[in-house]
Amino acid sequence: EPEVTQTPSHQVTQMGQEVILRCVPISNHLYFYWYRQILGQKVEFLVSFYNNEISEKSEIFDDQFSVERPDGSNFTLKIRSTKLEDSAMYFCASSERAGPLTPINEQFFGPGTRLTVL
Amino acid sequence: GEDVEQSLFLSVREGDSSVINCTYTDSSSTYLYWYKQEPGAGLQLLTYIFSNMDMKQDQRLTVLLNKKDKHLSLRIADTQTGDSAIYFCAENSGYSTLTFGKGTMLLVSP
Questions:
Q1: Which of A104, A105, A112 sits opposite B96 (nearest CB)?
Q2: Rounded to a whole number, what is the largest CA-CA distance in chain A?
Q3: Do B42 and A4 count as a contact with CB atoms less than 8 A apart?
Q4: A34-78 confidence digits (pLDDT tens)
Q5: Chain B residue with minimum CA distance to A107
């Protein structure tokens, strides 16, 4: 069964460093997402991406964050200068369709990358 | 803004029914979802309900929706140890975004 994969599973970095989290969405999917979950808190939406553009982004997704689809398979999240409060589990997801009027907006999630900022 | 609340922990014995509750705030949500997260794995869509439905049954799973009270519940019949996981309630809150609750950890003891 196709699945979303993410690398690395755990990333440790120093405050102020740049990190790139990588995701390989399901191959025929067109919509891509990043979510994060700070320990003990809710899963929060960061950004959605379609047709090489950001579709929606949350308040969390500020200028320190960027996303890219550098080739036909990878989808990356870059944090330019990490802060302690960026420590979280980051989930990538992809879906074939999107929008509230589609019969189902099934987003398939990867296992997550745990980012620890020291 | 949108908010989804759910209880954090539920413990049941194998064979019992489990009921996980959730409240949400966005009355314009078209679909409401239940996701399951097993240790070390991503979020997996378990079931969903369209907002004009009151109930949906899918094998051992029953979803009840009370739109007036903005209350959603997931009932798992004959709960098994393999059902132990974190269960997330979510609503579609934008064109393509999901708003999640904090998750309910379900612990099933033999």
A1: A105
A2: 43
A3: yes
A4: 999 998 888 899 999 999 999 999 999 999 999 999 887 899 999
A5: B45
